[in-house]
Every structure is written in C-alpha cells, then in structure tokens.
Amino acid sequence: MKTRNKLLTLLILSAGAATTTALINKAIKLSATSKNVLGEPEALCYKWRLGNIHYTKSGSGKPILLIHDLTPASSGYEWKNLAGKLSESYTVYTIDLLGFGRSEKPNLTYTNYLYVQLLCDFIKSEIGHRTDMVATGSSSALGIMACCNSPELFNQLMFVNPESILSCCQVPGKNAKLYKFMLDLPIVGTLIYHISCSKQAITKDFMTNYYYNPYSVKSGLIDAYHEAAHLGESPKSVYASIECNYIKCNIVNALKKIDNSIYLIGGGALEDIDERMNEYKEYNPAVETATVPNTKHLPHMEKPAEIYELIQTFLS
Description:
316 residues, alpha/beta, 8-stranded mixed β-sheet
C-alpha cells in the first residue's frame, strides 16, 4: 500500500511539473511574439511544397537575393539596414528560409539538400532570372551547393563571413539521433529550446560575436530576433537540425566546380577570418576577398554603408 501511495504521489508531482513547464513554455512564446516587431504589410508569400515562404521584394534593376544566416533567431530582418539602399539599384529579394522567421516551421528534419531545392525553386518561380546572391555565415554553403546544382540560375555570388571548410564538412555525431529525440520532446525539448533562444542568450551573441561595438546593439533589434525565434508551429525543429549538423555539407567539390564570380566579405575583428577566406581561395583561386574593419559576424547590420559600397564595387 505504501509503495502504491509513493508511486501515486510521484505521478502527481510529475504531472504537475509537466503542466507547469508547459505553461511556462506557452508564456514564453506569447511574450516573445506579442510585440509583432516583424509584421510587414507588404510581405509576399511563396507557396512552396513543404510550407509557405515569407519574402519581400523592393526596388528595380537586376535582381539580387539576400539570404540570412542559419541561427534559430535569423530571418530576412537581418538585411533591414541594407535592403533599402540596395533597392535604389537592384530588385532586392529577402527571404525567410523554411523553418526561420516568418516562414512556416513544420516539424521535420532540415537538410542542406532541402534548402538547395528551396533556393532553386524560389528563383525559378518568384525571380524568374539569373540573380546575384548575398548570403551570410552558414547559408554560404547553401548558396555554393545551389549554384553548383543549378548554375544557370545564378550570376555573381557574395558570402559574408562564410563558415570554415572544416565546419561545413561536419556530419551528425553518434549521439545526434538521441539529442534530436530529446529536442523533439514536446515539453522538455521546447524548454531546452527556449533557454537556448532566450532574450538573454540572443543579447549575449550580439554583444560578443555578432557586433564589434556592443553599444550598437539596440533593444528593438533583440526583440526582432527573439520574436523570429519563437514564431511558427515548430521553431525548435530547425534548431535541432542545426545543432545535430543535419544542415552541414561538404562543399569542397562544389566550390572547385563553380565558375561564377565569388566574393568573400569578412568581419575584420574576427580572429580567424583571414585564414578562413584563404581556405576558400585554395580551392577556388578566382575567389576575391575584402574585410570590413571594426566589425564581427554581421557587418551588414553594424556597418551597412561599407557593405553597400563593397556590393557596388564587386557586383555592379
């Protein structure tokens, strides 16, 4: 009888803890999305086969596609400081990739191949012409693979602080399936995600890794990234795929094969940026490079005027 009572008490406590955690998760999501910072009255929707894709289009001239980085809080908002100026010379497209920002976030495993197909389909359907492309960080690998897959869709390529070749080549480890299973759990996994993508964690990333000048990090910027990380049906799914390296891909052969003009832009304050860019030049000697002083991972957000000048120099 005592054992039965102990088990009953344990079940009640566990159920109570699960209910409390679920309520906390719901409160976090509501709080993060309540300000509607990312609302855009003129936003467009591309109805892709795996989910609706949010994108914007502005300006006139030859097309340029801007692709955000692959952090769970990333979105087309990343290009907010640059898109307006570029639209004076280009038809500017910004896209929220599937699983990010304002696009749909279905519960599935996200892979490099999935995004390669998305980019190619989007260009064919919504742009309809060869396009210049600018991508940030981990998205650079997507751009390289997409261009290798369908070179007729791309013109010139620019990558801002691309990942190292070694980092791109990482594969899911032996514990990847277990960790992804944990993250996929409806209550515990969601709590892990909310901790990893909290406003405090995003703020720390901006002040230490993304911006050179931490005093340039404004509260509205953090609100936008925090909101992007919590919108949609299953925002943690893309996070699980990123953490378990399902989006990684060996880009060496594709980089060697590409015949398009490739330009790399680096944040001058990043310690390894010269080595990283030289690594790309070893595999494709035609690659051209430049660095922006006093910037880190997101120079186009911190110093958009400098990036605009480089785009005009390289891509015009």
